[in-house]
Amino acid sequence: MTKKSKEIVEPWLEPEDLAEWTEDQFRRAALYKKGKLLRPADGTLTRPGRPKLENPKQQVTLRLDKIVLEKFRATGAGWQTRINEELRKSLGL
């Protein structure tokens, strides 16, 4: 037999005890219509999300020689950025 998990009971909050949303929170909230997501949330209720980049990076799958990957990873945190920098340098960008 499996053990039953305890039921989680949330405490009741009076509507007047709830914090009111600010205009900024409404602006950043996810927007749904009939269960369909029209606009995803931007950040959280307490912190805005990251600013949108003019030229965001693209996620790709790339096959590299094992030794190349090991050497870049050995340089520590930020190794993917360093690969990008080396590629830009080799292309004269």
Keywords, please?
single chain, 93 residues, alpha+beta, 2 domains, two-stranded antiparallel sheet, 3 helices, 2 strands, 28% helix
Describe the structure in your own words.
With 93 residues, the chain is α+β, with helices and mostly antiparallel strands. It folds into two domains: 21-51, no CATH class; 57-93, no CATH class. Helices cover 28% and strands 8% of the residues. The chain has helices at residues 23-28, 66-73, 79-90, and strands spanning 31-33, 36-39. A two-stranded antiparallel sheet has the order 1-2. Strand 1 and strand 2 (36-39) form a beta hairpin. The longest helix has 12 residues, at 79-90. The relative contact order is 0.06.
Short description:
By secondary structure, the chain is α+β, with helices and mostly antiparallel strands.
Mean model confidence by pLDDT: 86
Could you say how many structural domains there are in total?
2
Distance between the termini: 64 Å
Helix content: 25-40%
**Class computed from helices, strands and strand pairing:** alpha+beta
Write down the overall geometry: elongated
Largest sheet, in brief, is:
2 strands, antiparallel
| Number of helical regions | 3
| Strand ordering within the main sheet | 1-2
